# Entry
Amino acid sequence: MFSGSVFPDIQNHWAKASILAATQRNIFKGYADGTFRPAAPVTRAEFAAIISTALPRQPLSLPAISFTDVPTNHWAAKAIAQAYQSKYLSGYPNNLFKPNEIISRVQVLAALASGLNYEVTVDPINTVKKYYDDFAQIPSYAIRAIAAATEKRIVVNYPDIKRLQPNQNATRGDIAALICRVLEIPTVPHNYIAGLELFVIPPQFDAADPFVKELARVQKDNQWGYIDKTGKFVIPPQFNEASYFAEGLALVKENTNNSQSA
# Structure
């Protein structure tokens, strides 16, 4: 397998930045011929392996099961077992997993919402109707999961942000972009992120950083503060130095030259 950072078949691909970020983290690998094949479909076994590599390990909340079509020497047996026990992927009747079945976009999103324990905060029907022109194509079992994934801003729709295309095969490029959204790696253009409410804050700051965890650091009159996504100050400008928020804390320095956490 080829794991180089540049693939000739992604140079003009919409998910190029996500693909490069994913390959740099060994979430994906290229092929021996030097290509990535961004439009190639992904099997359930391959997706289980991607989950195992890319996402934080979740508690094993389901008992182990022996899928009759996943022998112990299957290349993805361990990843499949973990994906099932941590509620990312479910099986089929008669103890089948169908590892070679191509996974659809709606199945990928439902899997992520389930395994990551995403919950809806508003009516899910209203959410899917608001953001997807093809909401009627969403299987009933997945409506709540799609709404929850939309609220979390992980849904990526290309080329039309209003078309979920739920029953189309999920491609390698699709999944690279989705994983980057889950991991909060800023590689997906905003115009492809479903549910993202774009807003405009009038120019009023001497300097401003991107939003991190719903807050942005801004500078005004040589002092740093923090605003929310409406442009309202959560912490007014009062610090000589300030860092990004991380884990709910930010390192700041006041005029007294004492550092403290805000």
